[in-house]
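Usage

Read records sequentially. Each one opens with the input sequence:
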Amino acid sequence: MKKISFLLIALVISFTSCKDEKKESKTEIDTTESFVVKPEGTTVKWTAYKTTEKLPVGGKFKILKFENKSGATPQEALNNLSFSIPVSSVFTNDATNTRDAKIINSFFGAMLDTEFLKGTIKYVNNAYVASITMNGETNNLPLDVTITEERRVKLTGTMNLKDWKALDALASLNKVCFDLHKGADGVSKTWDDVAIEVETYLRKN
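and closes with the structure output:
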């Protein structure tokens, strides 16, 4: 009888231990989190410049396409994030409602492969770059990146249009904006550098 009692106690202890191990294992799985980049939480803004005084002209792309990208760290979530931007989504909030059409038709329309801008964000050797394809040319745009404790991300860089062989497209735009791009000195100028700013939010799963 004592042998049976000891056997029952041993079985109960063994069963309880197994249950505890399963609970701990389940907890470890549940607490594993990942960072997710979502297109609806992402904006792409740009600043171009006109006149010899280099006055800023700001705008954005209203549409940015990419699939949700996740990773165990913010860097992993952003690395190899491929995107495409329809150039028709340019928006500058121009009161005359004429500037957007000029940018779309006379700037992007003067390039090769004018429907989309495409690219991939890469994190290599502790640095971020955006490999961007525009006008049939692919080049890297170095990015400065800040990530706050609230998981808000800002990526900034300066695109030099000559690296994408887009100076002819720039001249085409300056031609249709000739008078509008004149400064106090009477010189019409459109600069070949464009500041890029991307903001997004990393959601935790």
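Summary fields computed downstream for this record:
- Residues 1-32 form one domain.
- Confidence is low (pLDDT under 50) at residues 1-31.
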